[in-house]
TrEMBL record, chain A:
Organism in which the protein naturally occurs: Streptosporangium sandarakinum
Subcellular compartments: Cell membrane
Name listed for the protein in its UniProt record: Peptide/nickel transport system permease protein
Record bears the keyword Ribosomal protein: no
Keywords from the UniProt entry: Cell membrane, Membrane, Transmembrane, Transmembrane helix, Transport
Pfam families xref list: BPD_transp_1
Transmembrane segments: 66-90, 97-120, 126-145, 172-196, 233-257
Lineage: Bacteria, Bacillati, Actinomycetota, Actinomycetes, Streptosporangiales
UniProtKB/TrEMBL annotation, chain B:
Similarity-based family: Belongs to the ABC transporter superfamily.
UniProt-recorded name of the protein: Peptide/nickel transport system ATP-binding protein
One Pfam family this sequence matches: ABC_tran
GO molecular function terms listed in the Swiss-Prot or TrEMBL record: ATP binding; ATP hydrolysis activity
CDD domains to which the protein is assigned, alphabetical: ABC_NikE_OppD_transporters
UniProt xrefs under PANTHER family: ABC TRANSPORTER, ATP-BINDING PROTEIN, TRANSPORT ATP-BINDING PROTEIN
Gene3D superfamilies in the record: P-loop containing nucleotide triphosphate hydrolases
Length: 276, 329
């Protein structure tokens, strides 16, 4: 049930991000005469101070926010898998070195670092923001995966694969990786949430590219235009709500995966035939 | 000539935690002390002992899973040291392992076919998909998992314990080894299917000239299944000989106790002269014969000096002061 609701939310936003701009096909940054209007038949979610349509911005912003979230989670997950699995399986000096690296990135204060890195970026496109977020966010996943690998590598089937003469890379990616897929999926989704939040935070602080419309930059302009003081709730509530909903959707899917991977977490017994 | 031989194998483990002795060093666990064992082609040798007596450690030393503290492993009479890299892979081509728990030794994410095809490919026995399929089918046939078409594409969770162990045996055979080390291969299986798996192993050893080491705590199954039995206690050798003679007339008091402890439906009264006790600590083992604190016929000399090997003829020998005294009398 959780996974269905969560997946529903995610599919909704994904469709919005992929199909929305194609269907509407207008410029979200285009200004008009009707500034600061509340929701109406013409502008469903109202307009900004400069007369931009909020709904249009939400739809286009979904692309940037989701895109940055997924891209940086992909990069972070690849880094975490490489560092965690290799360190955990190989052990010894390699593991020591990778552990030290992981620990350094763990204790680095992520947000200030992101801010500093983003400030020095040569160009502030969505992709470079995604890379910055990934670089600061992979360490936690690597730590979890290393711990899991340490337990899996002791299992008999890994020893048996070694006895058959399998090489270390093959063992890591064919024997250990599939077993850890639920963990990897969970950490991927958690990273997507963190990255969306980080992107919104960066944009809100004006450190991302403000000429592209994202939910974060919408919040930035709403803050600049003193939407709260004016009482223009339609300006800041939609982007905030979207971020919250995406986070909820991803978290629900994550809980669902946990329940599949760990049946003890299931609250209701599924009416399925018992397997022996 | 023996295919695989361990000569005076000794293995001391250093504990990772625990009290430190003098000079900050932790005392070693003396898991295996001066053990020699030889496997012959086409025959089954059993290594028997209770839990914690070091029999699995001997298996792992022979399999080169970890290095010996002293002593040597000989493959076809040649000393080998192959713990990593190409040498390890080459050694694996000759000596294969069968694990105790078939529920843990097959990766739940791979089909039966994958488990068998990988060693075939790795060791260059199969070069094309057609060859691979043919050889996987042949392997399944050899371990009596028929119809092979049906078993080939099964996932491990669709198989029973016995079937899984057969797959594990087939995987070991896929490498085409000359020696096979089976560490308690049937102890996790249902009693009703143990015999089938043991018969399969026996047949494979006979037909293919494999040297098989069968490690078990069950001396009754060793008697049924192995040509030779070697008994271990607390890391040391106790007695060895052809299985029928050894079980009929055990010469070492430990072997006698081990045989008596096996349930016997014809015996009504509990065995006389029962001695209780625990196997000794391997960190601080008793001096002399390690069995003397529990031995019903211990002599004064037993607690001070390690008994040497007493040859009893017909390939039998034992490490016991009593047997030595009886011979010289």
């Amino acid at each position: 049930m959780k996974i269905k609701i969560g997946a529903g939310i995610l599919v909704f936003f994904a469709l919005m991000a992929v199909l929305g701009p194609l269907l509407i096909g207008a410029d979200p940054a285009a200004t008009s005469e009707d500034g600061l209007q509340g929701p109406s038949a013409e502008h469903w979610l109202g307009t900004t101070q400069t007369g931009q349509d909020i709904l249009l911005q939400i739809v286009y912003g979904a692309r940037v926010s989701l895109g940055v979230g997924v891209l940086s989670a992909l990069i972070a997950t690849v880094l975490a898998v490489a560092v965690g699995l290799v360190g955990g399986y190989v052990g010894g000096a390699v593991d020591e070195a990778l552990s030290v690296l992981t620990n350094i990135f763990l204790v680095l204060p992520a947000l200030p670092l992101i801010i500093v890195l983003a400030g020095y970026l040569p160009q502030r496109g969505a992709a470079s923001v995604a890379v910055v977020i990934a670089v600061t966010g992979w360490a936690w996943g690597a730590r979890v995966l290393r711990a899991q690998t340490l337990s899996v590598r002791r299992r008999d089937y890994v020893q048996a694969a070694r006895a058959s003469g399998e090489g270390p890379l093959r063992i890591v990616f064919y024997e250990i990786l599939p077993v850890l897929l639920p963990v990897i999926a969970t950490s991927f989704l958690a990273t997507v949430v963190a990255a969306i939040l980080a992107e919104a935070g960066l944009s809100f602080l004006g450190l991302a590219d403000l000429s592209t419309v994202s939910w974060g930059s919408m919040l930035y302009f709403a803050q600049n235009g003193q939407a709260l003081l004016i009482g223009a709730w339609w300006w800041f509530i939609p982007p905030g709500l979207c971020i919250a909903l995406i986070g909820t959707g991803l978290a629900l899917v994550n809980f669902g995966i946990d329940e599949i991977a760990n049946p003890r977490l299931r609250t209701i017994k599924a009416p399925r035939k018992a397997r022996t | 000539m023996s295919i695989l031989e361990g000569r005076n194998l000794t293995k001391h483990f250093t504990a990772a935690r625990g009290p430190r002795g003098r000079f900050g060093k932790r005392p070693p666990v003396r898991a295996v002390e001066d053990v020699s064992i030889a496997l012959r082609a086409g025959s089954v040798t059993a290594l028997v002992g209770e839990s914690g007596c070091g029999k699995s450690t001997v298996a792992r030393l022979l399999a080169q899973v970890y290095p010996v503290t002293s002593g040597e492993v000989l493959l076809r009479g040649e000393p080998v040291r192959a713990h990593r890299g190409a040498a390890f892979k080459e050694y694996r081509r000759q000596v294969q392992l069968i694990f105790q728990d078939p529920f843990a030794s097959l990766n739940p994410f791979h089909r039966v076919r994958y488990h068998l095809a990988r060693p075939l490919r790795l060791h260059g026995h199969a070069r094309s998909d057609a060859e691979e399929r043919e050889q996987v089918a042949e392997l399944l046939e050899r371990v009596s998992l028929t119809p092979v078409e049906q078993f080939m594409d099964k996932m491990p969770h669709e198989l029973s314990g016995g079937q899984r162990q057969r797959v594990a045996i087939a995987r070991a055979l896929a490498v085409r080894p000359i020696a096979l080390i089976a560490d308690e291969p049937v102890s996790m299986l249902d009693v009703s299917i143990r015999l089938g798996v043991l018969r399969l192993l026996e047949g494979l050893a006979r037909e293919n000239g494999l040297a098989l080491l069968y490690i078990t705590h069950d001396i009754a199954s060793a008697r049924y299944f192995a040509e030779d039995i070697t008994v271990m206690y607390a890391g040391r050798l106790i007695e060895s000989g052809p299985s029928e003679e050894l079980t009929q007339s055990p010469r070492h008091p430990y072997t006698r106790l081990l045989l008596e402890s096996a349930p016997d439906p014809d015996r009504v009264a509990p065995p006389a002269g029962e001695r209780h006790g625990e196997p000794p600590s391997l960190i601080d083992p008793p001096g002399g014969c390690r069995f003397h604190p529990r031995c019903p016929v211990a002599l004064p000399v037993c607690s001070t000096e390690v008994p040497g090997r007493t040859e009893l003829g017909e390939g039998r020998w034992t490490h016991c002061w009593q047997a030595g005294a009886a011979l010289s009398r």
